[in-house]
Amino acid sequence: MKFTEELKRSAYIALWFILLTFPIMVIKVNTIENIVVWRWVNLVVIGLSAFVLSFFWQLYLRNKKSSTEMTPEKISTLHRLIENPKIYRPAVVIIAAIALVFPFAASHYQINIMTTALIYVMLGLGLNIEVGLAGLLDLGYVAFYAVGAYSYALLNYHFGLGFWTLLPIGALLAAFAGILVGLPVLRLRGDYLAIVTLAFAEILRLVLENWNDFSFGPSGISNIPRPGLFGINLTPEQSAVYMYFILIALCLLTVFVIYRLQNSRIGRAWVAMREDELACQAMGIDKTKAKLAAFALGATWAGMAGVLFAAKTTFINPASFTFLESAMILSIVVLGGMGSIAGVIIAAFAIILLPEYLRAFSDYRMILFGAALILMMIFRPGGLMADRRRQYQFQQPDAGENS
Amino acid sequence: MNFFWDLFLGGLTRGSIYALIALGYTMVYGILQLINFAHGEIYMIGAFTALIVASILTMQGLTGLSVLMLATVVAVLYSSAYGFTVEKIAYKPLRQASRLSPLISAIGMSIFLQNYVMLAQTSDFLPFPSLLPQSDFLDSISAFIGPSDFIIIVTSAVVMIALTLLLKFTKMGRAMRATAQDQQMALLTGVNVNRVISRTFIIGSALAAIGGVLIASHVGRINFYIGFNAGIKAFTAAVLGGIGSIPGAMLGGLVLGLAESFGTGYISSDYESVFAFALLILILIFKPDGILGRSSQQKV
Questions:
Q1: What is the value of ipTM here, to two decimals?
Q2: How far apart are CA B202 and CA B176, in angstroms?
Q3: Among A235, B46, B70, B275, which residue carries the largest CB count within 10 Å?
Q4: Quick one: average pLDDT of B67-84?
């Protein structure tokens, strides 16, 4: 009875989508040769997939409604698995072993992909400070990434400074940029903040693209040196391995710092600010300081990642720092679970590695990101691995032992 | 003087389009306190639909005003349908969620729609036929004002007046204003809030589609990415005028269009978008409520 009703509804929805997508999906005009191509196959595909998807959607919503009265803090099985020392200790050892052996077993190409993935891990974790912990939706995170990359490239070009000198300098400059962006937007609420950070990033990109004397314009900067190792000359292959280990070390540092930050005074302040700004101010938290700290610390990692990116690719131009990049980093944070370190790491690997290994899908990468962002928000707002706050466990004293 | 006049007209034309799109942002924001990131994409889909319809009609041998009218009508219908569907899929399930969730969902929808059009159509620029009609009257004033500028400015003005009348004097308009003021209270007095929200999206999308058709036939080419820039700028316009305020969006659009036009004319044409974004940042720093916006205190 209910089942047939849902089927009927799905059929209507499928019909609606067929009508809706008709001009864009089916018709393709070639205005130069005056040809119209009718792609009727797409109609069938859209109809069938809309039917199936809407059916499952309804099924899910019905199940969700019937189980609304869940316990609020349900610990997922995933968390229980991860927090069990019998499982996570060997897991950490295995992952560490794989990470150590990987560069000697894999090809040059695969090491490069892995290095890229690690850069995104850093970016994701950095943005996680802003979005996940402090609740400041930053749509222009890529600007700090660009600051890092360009400070390495330009300072190296003009003053010949090396990678290891410029890594902290790039991070500092990015942190400074973070404060610069943070200062004017302090008073703004969440959604305004999103648009202003986006505007800042676009301004920076346009300036980099047009100010030829400063940034060499759209053609970018090439021949950026790779990181040096005590003056030893490395072949590109060796240097890729070297780069990989630098990134592993820096990612570990990032994870450590963010883990320590999370439960520190400022970390707690961020979470409080994310949940309720007014209440957090009433508790005596300096909102200005907390927000600026979030921007500065978030930007620091982006700056470092930028230096690493410039050193890895040896070529940068403004096209690497578009809004899409920001959106990709944001989807890493959202998919991974805002505030969750392990979730962000897993999501970064998934988002970077899957399209590399599933070449057939690489065209569909962005459309899948978009869909994933929407579906994630609706069905699993906490992300793949939702962050779980520390809480006291009250243990009843066992009556039998006390007597 | 002549240069000044050209820039002024260009700014006015551009500003009218921004205003048309900004109205959709401001109406949705007024009711849901949500930045509808996908709004720019609705405008882009409107332009694409118009292009497809117009090309087919032209190949059938039709010309002139009938092509323009039909293409616009179909584009408006389709954009409205898209706006309606987007709301149902991406925003309605998130009514009760925290503020960040619908915003992220909106960004996802924007990326999705962009890539949907790119994959289904093309990533190249498509030439858009000039649909704006020719007439003796337009020729006679062409020394003074370009025909497409004239049509865009007049059409936008008419559409905006119609919208103002609709909001002021119809039952639907009153329900929309009531919902924007206080959703709970509107619900208690018997307003179907869900329907009002749907209608807001439909009207906003229709306006965006009109803007899309006008600007596409003015500029002469479109691709899947035009919605992004137009969207951000229209949002800037909405914030400039005071988001949530309908006359504010119109005023903000015009101010932004003029600022961009004069900026490119007198300072440098490389930094066209920078002027808009810088203006947005300045406004938000010094007057976050916009020109016509009411200042709102955050309450517990």
A1: 0.84
A2: 12
A3: B46
A4: 91
